[in-house]
Amino acid sequence: MNKNQDRKENNKPKNKSKILQFIKNLFVVNDYVFDELFDIDRVKMSKKSAGREKSSAEAEDKGFNESGFRQPKRAFTVAALREKRFKEQKPAPRKPEDVPVSENLEENLMKLRHFFRLPQNRDIVIREFSVPLNGLTKAAIIYIDGAADTKLVDGFVLQPLMLLTNINKEYAGTLFETVKSLLVPTNQFAEANNLQEVIEGVVNGDTVIFLEKSAQALVVETKGWPVRSVGDPKTEKVIQGPSDAFNESFRQNLALVRKRLRTNALVTEYLKVGWRSRTDLALLYLDGVANKKIVYEMRRRLKSIKVAYVTDTGIIQQLVADSPYSLIPTSLATERPDRVTAFLNEGHIAIIMDGSPFAIVAPITIWGLLHSPEDYYLNPVVGSFTRVIRTLSFFIGVITPAFYIAITNYHPEMIPTDLLLAIAATRELVPFPVIIETLLMEFSFELIREAGARIPSILGPTIGIVGALILGQAAVQANIVSPILVIVVAITALGSFTIPNVAFSFSVRIIRFVFIFLAAILGFFGIAFGLMVLAFIITGTKSLGVPMLAPVAPFRPRSGDLVLRRPFFSFDSMPKYVEPQAKHMQVKLIRKWDPVSRNRVKGDW
Amino acid sequence: MYRLKEGHINSQSLFRILVILVVSNIFLGTPGAMVEEGATAGWILLLFAGAIAGAGIFILIKLLKKFPGKNFIEIAETLWGRPGAVFTALSFGILAVYTAIISLREFAETMLTTVLPRTPISVVTFFFVAAMLLGAYKGLEVIGRTSILLLPFVIGGIFTILFLAGNYISLNNLFPLLGTGLGELAYHAPGRSSIFIEIILVSLIVSNISDIENIPRATWKAFGVSLTVFIVVEIFYISIFRVATSEKLYVPLFQMARIIYMGRFIQRIEAIFIFIWFFTGALKLTLALYAGATALSRGFRIPIYQPLLFPLGLLTFSLSFVPPDIITAVRIDMLYLREYGAIPAWGLPLALLATSFIRKKGGGRPEKSQPD
Fold first, then answer.
1. How would you label A361-379 residue by residue, b for 16+ Cβ within 10 Å and e otherwise?
2. In-domain check, residue B365
3. Which of A10, A30, A261, B338 has the most CB within a 10 Å radius?
């Protein structure tokens, strides 16, 4: 054996082992692998010791196996790596919903400190105290400074627990039950069984009470967020009619709606949106009036939103829109509670979100975007007149500049000769073609508008001076633009600002530029092409499945509330296009004393 | 993936679609052709042609009632088997695309001769094709709604022209009342009934209509309204321009718009009527393209028609340049499409109805109606 071994060693050329060593040094990654591959002797040795795994495992710690050789490092095979990684992995941090409220108060507080990142997090308040029940029971409350109303915390949580317990020594079951039923005189509370519920309560501005030896915590409503009081609407002002508007407070907004619709059929479904912001959101509808399919569809869309946070209902509008790229808004954002209630009454649904002063109303039609609540508050003739003006303003806002370009460039024969001469005279000194002139003015106007929206209100009058004087007067005097074009641009601007819905007004202004280009290329033919495409697009747009031009195209029985408004007493039927469950808005004969009204209904009432 | 739906329309939309389709012929050479063949009795020729078209529509509706809820190609498949269905679909598709090609050229040329004399025809054609591709892609629902939206403007526009040009009317121009004579009128009537062949579109989209029970009524109503408008325009046309001029004019309504002079301020407002021209033309072309694609997709069992739109649109665009000039295009329209178009249009339903009587097939339940 020895002889054989010696012979083998002698036979092995020395330079071979050197080469192997060299290769090994080149790839110093894992010597074991190379040993096994290249060092035949050691492979043999390991095979020999294969039968004695126990002892070799014991020797592993020392780095040598029993044969005296250095134990090779652990093989980096895939399986071994996986095992290593698994062992090295820290235990996953437990989620708050997996951690039940413990009977040990200290343990609860310790875990909460961990979850709330204390002590870095300075506005989380943990107040420990004792309740004089069952001797002295340790207790603690936790709330967020600023989110909870400290007066409520002091007066309705701490005071009864610390002081009133001395007056009344009666018990109602366990200590927790006693505190719940006798000692926390607040209107809303909830029991928390795990830390997720506790955290949810605390971040929502509530105060959570922990008691020693009780495996439940009490979440007491003490919300005291800073909120603005109910103010005037900023974008939807009316001359006659209510002027309270939504603000950023969720509950106040709901209350404003409830105040106007005092019926038990008004449902407010609460949802949470945003997995980080956990924003409150309410879906409002009148049960028995709104179409169940529409409610179901909106609920489905809202529930399927998976985003980190939302800041405003404007984002919700985009997230639930039928066609998010559509220039025509497919839902209505309004800050007027009276508008929301009117729509709810007609079988639409509304969404109110915490932190947003705008409610969303859906489904909506293009007529709804052109309506103003004032139309209803004034005489039907006046209401109809203002609506006609607004509907015309849509077309004025979209095609006036395009029309001007088309007429002056392509169809001058349309203009009566005197007017043509007048226009030609004013254009005589202007060096630009009409399209450049128009784009120049439209672009300047957009600049003024955008600057006007961004400028601090204290500098507001500056815009007027810049706009009127420099762009109007001076541009004309300098022969940069013709005075007729200034009139055209002004009328267009008025047209687009007459549209009551802000989003729709923006769309009109963007569509206008498309029409300007089309008119510059092809005159009336281009405008006709644009109108045709616009018609195809608008008729194809849907809001929650309801076509935007609903009672007109597709044709549906009308309730007399589109461009012309019937008198209020003749709104008998609900708008059919939302397919409401209720058939009638009101009884047919409202003005029973009026013989004319009685004739209208002809004994049908 | 975006779901491609064909959509459903109701009989209201059907009525307006059909009216737009038939009335669109007024804007082109048809009134002139009527005068050519009937002279002062051009409008009586329309009545004769209307009678024949009415018989055709009667057969068509009879057939549709026999197979409720089934479209033309399905009926052909039931009666004639697969080859029959393919034949019907092909004839329908070719007829539709042919109509699209000729109408595209004519409408584009109208635009050129009236308002855009220095624009290349390819530009105008391109915009027409773009509009028709968009509309046809959006589907029947959108086309139907757009027709509802635009029909009042079209009809209103036509009657505005008639009203404003009314001060040129001379009733003497309508005499002799019978024009070229009853025999001549009767001889030309079958061919001229082709101006109503667009109505057979109803047989193709019958399965897309939500209220099938109202289809006959809507079809008859559409036929009646469009015939009335046609006759009124024809009477105005002849009485304003006289026979000698009327034969020569290509776009009668445009000529009427040109002569309008209501004081110094309202004169030459023909450019305004570009809008109704374009709306009617684009809707007609859209429907023709839609009909062609739908017929082919149904005949060859392609589940959606949208992939066929672009090739057919390109084909229409290219082939519309084949006629060397507007005169040839009008001649193709008047001498072929509006002369022999009646043969497949009224012949196919008649053949199908005859087969169904011979083979005693028919019946079947209507599919469940779906909301629009």
1. bbbbbbbbbbbbbbbbbbe
2. no
3. B338
Nearest to A108 by CA among A83, A141, A149, A131: A141
Nearest CA among B145, B209, B147 for reference residue B8: B209
Q: Is residue B6 part of a domain?
A: no
Q: B205 is in which domain, residue-wise?
A: 11-351
**How many Å apart are CA A571 and CA A564, to the nearest integer?**
12
**Cβ distance of B9 and A417 shorter than 8 Å:** no
The predicted-structure confidence for A479-526, as pLDDT tens digits, reads as follows: 888 888 889 999 999 999 999 998 999 999 999 999 999 999 999 999
d(CA A17, CA A39): 9
Query: What tokens does A310 get?
Result: 């939302």
Q: Would the CB atoms of A414 and B269 count as touching at under 8 Å?
A: yes
Contact A522 B272 (CB under 8 A): no
State the Cα angle at B36 between B30 and B42, rounded to 5°: 70
Report which of residues A208 and A423 the model is more confident about.
A208
- For residue B309, being part of any structural domain is answered with yes
B2 burial type by CB count under 10 A (0-12 exposed, 13-18 middle, 19+ buried): exposed
Instruction: Check: CB of residue A430 under 8 Å from CB of residue A481.
Output: yes
Report the b/e string of B292-305 with b at 16+ CB within 10 A. Answer: bbbbbbbbeeeeeb
- This prediction's pTM: 0.83
CA distance B32 to A289: 57
Q: Is the pLDDT of residue B6 over 70?
A: no
Question: How far off is chain B from A473, nearest CA to CA, in Å?
Answer: 30
Angle A567-A571-A574 (CA atoms, 0-180°, nearest 5)?
155
**Would you list which residues of chain A are within 8 Å, Cβ to Cβ, of chain B?**
407, 410-411, 413-414, 416-418, 522-529, 531-533, 535-536, 539-540, 547, 549, 552-555
Is the CB of A553 less than 8 angstroms away from the CB of B10?
no
Distance CA B275, CA B273 (A): 5
Tokens of A214: 């009780």
Beta carbons within 10 angstroms of residue B345's beta carbon:
24
The amino acid that residue A487 corresponds to is I
What chain B residue is nearest to A413 in terms of C-alpha separation? B268
Number of domains in chain B: 1
Helix (H) or strand (E) holding A190: strand A189-192
Residue of B nearest to A556 (CA): B12
CATH assignment of the domain containing B78: 1.20.1740.10
Q: Is residue B371 part of a domain?
A: no
- Closest CA of chain B from A523, distance in Å: 8
Q: What are phi and psi of A219, to 5 degrees?
A: -95, 115
Work out the minimum CA distance from A256 to partner chain B, whole angstroms.
Answer: 37
Residue pLDDT, tens place only, B289-337:
999 999 999 899 888 888 999 999 999 999 999 988 888 888 888 878 8
User: pLDDT category, B369, cuts 50, 70, 90?
Assistant: very low
pLDDT tens digit sequence for A358-412: 999 989 999 999 999 888 898 889 999 999 999 999 999 999 999 999 988 888 8
C-alpha torsion angle, residues A516, A517, A518, A524 (rounded to 10):
40
Using one digit for the tens of pLDDT, what is the confidence trace for A239-250? 888 989 999 999
Cα separation, B283 vs B278, in Å, equals 8
pLDDT-derived band at B263 (thresholds 50, 70, 90) equals confident
**A363 cis-preceded (ω within 30 degrees of 0):** yes
Chain B residue numbers with beta carbons less than 8 Å from the beta carbon of A414 are: 268-269, 271-272
Per-residue tokens: A400: 């006036």
The residues that bridge with A100 in the sheet, in sequence order, are: A194
Q: How many beta-carbon contacts under 8 Å exist across A and B?
A: 103
Between these two residues, A455 and A15, which has the higher pLDDT value? Answer: A455
Task: Note whether A34 and A27 are within 8 A (CB).
Answer: yes
pLDDT at residue A36 greater than cutoff 70: no
